[in-house]
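lol so apparently i was supposed to do this last week
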Amino acid sequence: MTDDLPAVRCTGLRYAFGDNVAVDGVDLTVRPGEVFGLLGPNGAGKTTTIRLITTLLRAPSGVVQVFGVDVARHRMAVRRMVGYVPQQLSADSALTGRENVALFARLFDVPRGQRRVRVDESLAMVGLGDAADRLAGTYSGGMIRRLELAQALVNAPRLLILDEPTIGLDPVARASVWRRIGEVREQTGMTVLVTTHYMDEADQFCDRIALMHRGRLRALGTPAELKANLGRESTLDDVFRVITGDDLESGGGIRDVRAARRTARRLG
Ligand SMILES: Nc1ncnc2c1ncn2[C@@H]1O[C@H](COP(=O)(O)OP(=O)(O)OP(=O)(O)O)[C@@H](O)[C@H]1O
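anyway here it is w/ adenosine-5'-triphosphate bound
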């Protein structure tokens, strides 16, 4: 009955850190079953938007609904529907892959009788079945990301939210992470909301894209639509540059460097 409801609907969403308006009146609908990419330069407001959707931040104004459920009023119900892979994580290098996922199964309150099966299924979905009993500390960066994906999948979420799932990975590992995301989506029909800085990845793997800049949505459409609006032979990079001016090059600064270092430390 709820199948036609949007996976996410944000209306007039706004959030400020002191005087700094991070999210400035965002209206956004993510359709059920799609892979939706939220793009934008550093500081655009993507992570803050995701935190509002996942109930980690509370919006002072605006409404967020996940499959029709209001996040302000039903936080736990929303959390049960959402799997979230944040930028800074989560996998414990002193535990095996299986133990890491089992820990999340307990945290998410997966019924005891289903835990073992759910853990095995999640590890298999991301291609870590054979490595499940190795310590996560021995995994490559790409395997760690897939392990984090398995952690988010263990409670069978209807909506999977990934914040920069491929940052800091080499091209082969990036492709492998995306392949797993695609397979999971096909197997489960779940909706995927993803942020990325990699335009080529967004172009290839997202059904629709929203470009965010300075807290606002500046463009929304399929990759093909966004490129077509700009003219023949345009790339998503071109679209991005037109919308954000020079911010793509100048964006980042200390926060970006810190984030990249954090990721490198985590993966290294
Ligand atoms: N915890 C915080 N305290 C104060 N300001 C914050 C905090 N988190 C984010 N901001 C500010 O809010 C704005 C939006 O940040 P946000 O992290 O949502 O952007 P982003 O698009 O996710 O950037 P990135 O790509 O670097 O992750 C930025 O100006 C940022 O400096």
